[in-house]
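quick q for whoever's on today - can somebody do inverse folding on this one?? i tried earlier but teh output was garbage lol. tokens:
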């Protein structure tokens, strides 16, 4: 303590204390917040992990359409006896009948189950359990989507240009040549393997005409009923 004029000044060897909670917050803010940094890193890791999971699920969904086309070509229209082949050939004989979605999924459940089991046994050691599960979930969703989409071709008229194109693509397989156009949802594998035929018009035998085409007057989007002879 010393005098300057008539004023007494006190000097402390310690820095002034900041009283109360506000002081504590100021001291904490002045130091690196390691907890916040770790939390931020953890959030980034979680987001990347989620994106990878979505990526593997999307890959499985896309693979379902390729596998379904391959099954359609090599098993359903193959030469080896197979329960699914018998059921599919029956579907060709009754193509005019509406396809029931739950029944379609139920009839294919055993085949889907075997496919999933085989893929899991192969992929789990290679990719790890998390990636394999994500892929399998996407694959299952894709196979359900394929069966649902196929059923719609037999239950209702196409909506939009792509469906009009795809309906003609599929009904050409039923009405004109069962050796081509195996894709049920897209023609990519057919183009890759040289089995794609893109018809401008498809003519159906009266026994193959679905109810939606009859309701449309026998002709719709390039699909028409053959004239009786």
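ok took a stab at it. sequence:
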């Amino acid at each position: 303590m010393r005098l300057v004029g008539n004023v007494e000044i006190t000097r402390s060897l310690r820095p002034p204390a900041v009283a109360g909670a506000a002081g504590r917050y100021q001291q904490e803010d002045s130091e690196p917040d390691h907890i916040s940094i770790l939390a931020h890193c953890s959030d980034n890791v979680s987001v990347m992990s989620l994106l990878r999971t979505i990526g593997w699920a999307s890959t499985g969904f896309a693979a379902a359409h390729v596998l379904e086309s391959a099954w359609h070509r090599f098993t359903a229209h193959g030469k080896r006896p197979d329960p699914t082949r018998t059921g599919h050939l029956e579907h060709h004989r009754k193509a005019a009948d509406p396809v029931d979605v739950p029944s379609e999924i139920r009839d294919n459940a055993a085949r889907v189950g075997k496919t999933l089991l085989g893929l899991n046994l192969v992929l789990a050691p290679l990719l790890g359990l998390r990636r394999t599960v994500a892929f399998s979930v996407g694959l299952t969703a894709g196979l359900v989507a394929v069966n649902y989409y196929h059923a719609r071709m037999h239950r209702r008229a196409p909506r939009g240009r792509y469906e009009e194109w795809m309906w003609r693509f599929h009904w050409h397989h039923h009405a004109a040549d069962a050796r081509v156009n195996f894709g049920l949802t897209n023609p990519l594998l057919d183009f890759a393997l040289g089995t794609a035929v893109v018809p401008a018009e498809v003519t159906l035998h009266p026994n193959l005409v679905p109810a939606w085409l009859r309701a449309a007057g026998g002709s719709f989007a390039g699909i028409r009923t053959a004239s009786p002879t």
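fwiw The chain has nine helices and five strands. also The chain has a mean pLDDT of 83. so keep that in mind when u check it
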